[in-house]
Amino acid sequence: MNALEVKNLTKTFDKIIAVDNASFEVPEGSIFGLIGRNGAGKTTTIRMMMNIYIPDSGEVLLRGNKVDHQFKDKVGYLPEERGLYKKSKVMDILLYFAELKGKKGKDIHKKAEEYLERFELLDRKTAKIEDLSKGNQQKVQFISTILHDPEFIILDEPFSGLDPINTNLLKEIILDLKKQGKVIIFSTHLMDFAERMCDHIAMIDHGKVILKGRLSDIKAKYSQENISLNYEGDISFLNSHPLVDKVEDFGNTTGIRIKDASKTQELLKLLVDNKVKVKRFDANDITLHEIFISLAGKVEGEQLTAGVANV
User: Which domain holds residue 239?
Assistant: First the structure.
């Protein structure tokens, strides 16, 4: 069952198409990733879902009914452009945002302290927002997003400005919220985060949804002709070999797309015959990054002639 359905959303700004007929479904109890490069249209799409922007056409359905102002009461929303009151104290701002959502009292105060302790901010609860580092401000903003126990959690680039330790903590909390049955939507241009966390995705580029669905199904479909290779030696000969469609170098690992999925063993023999030391050879393995590069490159050429701008 779908919690949210985005149907044919379109939004233009001064003749620039920011979102172009975007459609996707967000299932109940899932982590959903809206992914794409910076400026692809992710934030504009989220703002239409939140009814901050009114779409030129299309609609957003909440469990079958058109989204209205009441949807905001069910949502914890972390915007891309953070909005904390700089002169306010940490605990005061958390309790203020919770009260705006109808939550106050000793229980919400205790819950705020628990989150501050988990993020190692309890000793800063009386500090002013302006005196915190950018990363700590981000953590306070995230706590304010989830403190009122929303049904839906929408996070626009939530990992921005966080160090690896706090990024991992944020990831753990998001996974805990999923276990509680929350619907979590986050946008990111970081494909590895989406790949590790999301159940379903919609990939957007130049305002168009170019791929959507269950992540495991997508990877299974696109990996049939892909090999992930770790090696020592020279594989430059593959660039012009008739067996190979494309070679993508990622540093420690190389992705090789072959033209015929039945030729996997032939490729392995070719590498060995050319004295390449094969450390790892994974057939039918592909990253979300590789899929995006493959698809976005095709869309790039189409958009150059279609006149759709990147917003």
Answer: 224-285
The pLDDT of residue 161: 76
Q: Would you say residue 308 has pLDDT above 60?
A: no
- Nearest CA to 23 among 192, 194, 208? 208
Task: Tell me the whole-structure pTM to 2 decimals.
Answer: 0.80
Q: pLDDT (tens digit, 9 = 90+) per residue, 199-248?
A: 999 999 999 999 999 999 998 888 878 888 999 999 999 998 999 988 98
User: What secondary structure does DSSP assign to 142-173, as a single string?
Assistant: HHHHHTT--SEEEEESTTTT--HHHHHHHHHH
Kind plus residue range of the DSSP H or E element containing 289: helix 288-306
CB-CB neighbours of 153 under 10 Å: 23
User: By C-alpha distance, which of 204, 176, 184 is closest to 28?
Assistant: 184
Helices (H), 86-239: 90-100, 106-118, 134-146, 164-179, 191-197, 215-222
As a whole number of angstroms, the distance between CA 51 and CA 181 comes to: 23
- What is the number of structural domains in the chain? 2
Residue 295, domain member (yes or no): no
